[in-house]
C-alpha cells in the first residue's frame, strides 16, 4: 500500500522504515529540511540500533523515500500516518500545535479520499478534532476517516519492538477504515486490538501512567527501605516473582525521564482536570518522581557538604541506556544542581553527549570514556545504566578517583561486588557500603 508518514522522529522514522521492510511503499515527510537532507543521504538523524541498515536496504529497494514537500507526500496516498511531536505545554497539557499544522498541510494538499492515522500520543478526543481540522481546511471534495493508532515502541529497541510488540491498537468509528489500517500492520505479526477512537487514545496514556506508577511506587519504597534498613533490590525481586505483579519496572533509581512518561503523566492529569476529576494516583506519581531526582543530590551533599570547586565525574547522561535522547533526562537536573553548587562536572555518555550540549549548555566538560571521566576526579555519580558503565570494574574507580566514592543513581552494581574494593558506594534503597 502507498503510505506517507508525517514526522521523521523516533516514532515516524521507525514506523516508516518498518512498514517499508514489510513491502509497503513509504514516503516519510518532515518539515525539518536538514533532517530530510540527511535521510536522503541514507543517514539516520537519530541513534536507534539496526535502523540505519534497514533504512538503507529499503531505500535501495525503491520502497522508501523522504521529502519535505506535502504536495509530494500527499499525492495519490490512501493512508497518511501522523507521528509529529506532542510535547508538554506550559500548563502541563499536550501541545498540539505541530499536530494542527500537520492537519492543515494535509488538508491543503490531499488529492483523494484518505484515512488519517494518528500515531502521536494525543489527548482523548483529539482524533475527532483531527477530522474536523482537516475537513475545515480543505474544499470538501474528499472524505476523511480518522484512526487512532498509538505507539508503544521503546527508544533503544524500537525496531525490535515494532516486530515483537505486545499489541497494536487500532481505534476508529468506521469499520472499513479500521480493517484497512489493521491490514497494513498485520505483517508485523503482533496481536492487534481494535476499539473505538477514545478508548484507543486512552489506552496509551493509561499504559504509560501505569508503568510510571510502578516506578514511583518502587522509588518511594526504596526511600522507606533506606530508613528501615531493608534492601529494595531484594524487596523488588521478591515482589516481582509474583506473576500478578511482574518483575519489570521495579528498579529503584533517580526516577523516570525521557520524552514520554513525564509529559504523558502530566497530560493525563490535565485531561482529568478538564473534566473536574482529580487523578490523585497519577498526581502523586509525578510528585514522587520529581522528588526522586533530588535524592542523589541530597546524598552527595551529605557526604560532601561543600561542592565548591569539586571535580565530579558524571557517568551517563541519556534518560536511559541505548538512546541519545536527552529529553527530560534526570541527569539534566542533577548536573545543573551540582554546577550551581560550584562544582565542575566531567561527563561521559557513550552517545548522548552531542544532544546533551543543547540541554546543558556550558555546564559540562564532555569526556570520551569512563576512564577519562573519572581520572583524578573527586568522586563519581552514575546517572544512566549503560552496559559499558555497569561492566566497569569497581576496583578501577577506587584506583582513579581522588576520594574513592561513587553515588550510583541506577543501582548498577550488586553490593557484594563492591565489598573489599576500597570503594565507598552509595546507591538507591540499599545500605551504603564502606
Ligand atoms: P520527535 O520530536 O523525535 O519527532 C517529531 C518530528 O516531527 C520532528 O522531526 C519534527 O521536525 C517533525 N514535525 C513537526 N511538525 C511537523 C509538521 N507539521 N509536518 C511534518 N513534520 C513535522 O518525536 P517522537 O519522539 O518521534 O514522538 C512522536 C510522537 O510519538 C509523540 O506524540 C510521542 O509522544 C509519541 N511517542 C513517542 C515515543 C518515543 O519513544 N519517542 C514512543 C511512543 C509514542
TrEMBL record:
Print the keywords alphabetically.
Answer: NAD, Oxidoreductase
Enzyme class label: oxidoreductase
Which Gene3D superfamilies would you find in this protein's record?
Answer: Cytochrome c1, transmembrane anchor, C-terminal, NAD(P)-binding Rossmann-like Domain
Record InterPro entries:
6-PGluconate_DH-like_C_sf, NAD(P)-bd_dom_sf, UDP-Glc/GDP-Man, UDP-Glc/GDP-Man_DH_C, UDP-Glc/GDP-Man_DH_C_sf, UDP-Glc/GDP-Man_DH_dimer, UDP-Glc/GDP-Man_DH_N, UDPglc_DH_bac
Q: Which residues form a coiled coil?
A: none
Q: Which SMART domains match?
A: UDPG_MGDP_dh_C
Do the record's keywords include Isomerase? no
Q: What is its EC number?
A: 1.1.1.22
Q: Which residues form the UDP-glucose/GDP-mannose dehydrogenase C-terminal domain?
A: 313-415
What Pfam family does this protein match (any one)?
A: UDPG_MGDP_dh_C
Q: Give the matching SUPFAM superfamilies.
A: 6-phosphogluconate dehydrogenase C-terminal domain-like, NAD(P)-binding Rossmann-fold domains, UDP-glucose/GDP-mannose dehydrogenase C-terminal domain
Q: Which reaction does it catalyse?
A: UDP-alpha-D-glucose + 2 NAD(+) + H2O = UDP-alpha-D-glucuronate + 2 NADH + 3 H(+)
Membrane-crossing segments per the record: none
This protein's pathway: Nucleotide-sugar biosynthesis; UDP-alpha-D-glucuronate biosynthesis; UDP-alpha-D-glucuronate from UDP-alpha-D-glucose: step 1/1
Family (UniProt): Belongs to the UDP-glucose/GDP-mannose dehydrogenase family.
Protein name per its UniProtKB record: UDP-glucose 6-dehydrogenase
| Annotated source species | Salimicrobium humidisoli
